[in-house]
Amino acid sequence: MDQIGRYFAGLFELVGRAYRLDPVALAWVRDQPHAIGLAVGVALLAGISIMCGQAVVLLVNRMAGWKFGVGLLFSGIWLVLLHVVESVALWALGNWFSATHVSYVTVLSGVLVSMAPQIWGFLALMPYLGTAISRFLSAWSAVVLWAVTAGTFDVGRWPALGLVAASWLVMQLLSTLAAPWISTGLSALFERVAGRPFWVSGADVLNGRPLITEEVHA
Amino acid sequence: MILADLLVLIGAFAVAGMLLAPLESLHWWATRGIEEVELGPAPSSLELAASRPDDGGPRKFVVYLSGIGAIGAQDVPQEEVPFIADLRDRLSGYRVIDDVFPYAVDNRSLTGERLLGWLWRQLEQARLKNPNTLLATLINIRNLMQLFVCADRRYGPTYNMGMAKEIHRSLVRHGHAPGSPDEVVLLGWSGGGQIALGAIWYLHAMGLRCSLLSLGGMLSDDIALARTEHLWHLYGSKDFLQASGQVLFAGRWPISKASPWNEALRDDKITFIDLGPYNHNVKQHYFDYESTLPDGRTYAGKVVDTIAEVLGPRD
């Protein structure tokens, strides 16, 4: 019980340090008994929150019960994959640029900790303001990663910004190139399981014209 | 200290309210939305009889959508009742419809069978006793959240589909024959302006050509502007609530060149009509039959005159 209490105290301390853009947050984590566990905890909280924020896509697609759960799981896996790619790119670029050898786990911890602002990701559900909040949180996460990267590779502020931007670009490239393939695959899977097409977003429901004309001609 | 705690509590309630706001329309969509939109109830024999035009020509409709103070389709703030009656008298060529509640996708009034129905009934009673009671602002806040749901590009499609369905049903109830080239003007007051605008996308898909009369409406840069025949925005120079639309909705900023709003402006689809020194509410507002303007007309009288003028050439 005591250990759980200490874990959560450490978790909140880490989140607080991330919000304050503490460049030595990672060094502080490494000294903790459950170092990677704390970083994973931050990412887990953020992931759950982001998933809640994205639940609207699933609700628009009339997914409930186990399908809703599986949908959230798929979204979660995609999110983890993107951040793993980002951390690998950052690790490779950072070690090459700084000519040091920082372990991958350290860089991965930094990427996970940088997700701390996304703990508020559920606010994306807010009507109208949600999209702007979501973008703001993404930008805040990028700033946290910038601060953490500067401390991790000890390269100074501006080179750290360049490293974060480059790894972010790699992640976005993967997202842009692979997302349509994954989306098509998931849509086909959904159609096979549910027996009806998958509307990717609320905006796609706008193409519901055939449904409406059916009503008119009924 | 207590004040700070109170503010935090109010803030938490406001955030919770905003988070919960889209659930009603999403739940409708997730449980019965598609079925209702796909099938639609078969019109009754009475409705079919009503939908046969007597003279064979197209009919003209004005659909009135109330502001965020409404509790149900016809349970609107008292001040709007004489205004609607006045519209019926003046717009003789039009059928004026007022049986659509713009803040629920299934046209269910707040006091109907709902989880919080008891709360809205209490507030309705309180408002009947004192129209200016502060508690009644809860109704406004609840409906304002639905306005944001309507304007949201993620939630709007399902919300607007439900609203279009209800408007279409109402038109059929009042004599519209589906498929006929009837003329439809949506008249949205305050928040009803945005709800009307959102619904036009789907009403157009149903084969209806719709125009919009916004009365002090809080309008967003809705994509439905592309499918709107024309938008007349009637506003008062002292009405800061309608003016807040151009600040709140980024698509209305001049820098958003490619937004639906600015495209509609370029296409001359939007006409702004300055009514004079009108407030949004309290006094000297759009429904005020007591205060008079320098020309001797009442504030509400001038609004009705202006609407009649706008729709006049169509008679």
Structure write-up:
The complex is a heterodimer of chains A (218) and B (315). Chain A has 218 residues and is mainly α. Chain A has one domain (2-217). Chain A has helices at 2-19, 25-30, 35-60, 65-98, 104-113, 129-153, 157-194, 202-205, 209-217. In chain A, helix 4 (65-98) packs antiparallel against helix 7 (157-194). The radius of gyration of chain A is 20 Å and the shape is globular. Mean pLDDT of chain A is 78; it is low at 200-218. Chain B has 315 residues and is of the alpha/beta class. Chain B has one domain (60-314): Rossmann fold (3-Layer(aba) Sandwich). Helices cover 45% and strands 12% of the residues of chain B. Chain B has helices at 2-20, 23-39, 45-50, 80-90, 117-129, 137-151, 156-173, 191-205, 240-248, 260-266, 299-311, and strands spanning 60-65, 95-97, 183-189, 209-215, 228-236, 270-276. In chain B, strands 2-1-3-4-5-6 form a 6-stranded parallel beta sheet, with helices on both faces. In chain B, helix 8 links the parallel strand 3 (183-189) and strand 4. The longest helix of chain B is centred in the first third of the chain and has 19 residues, at 2-20. The radius of gyration of chain B is 19 Å and the shape is globular. Chain B starts with a helix and ends with a helix. The interface between A and B is medium-sized, with 31 and 38 residues.
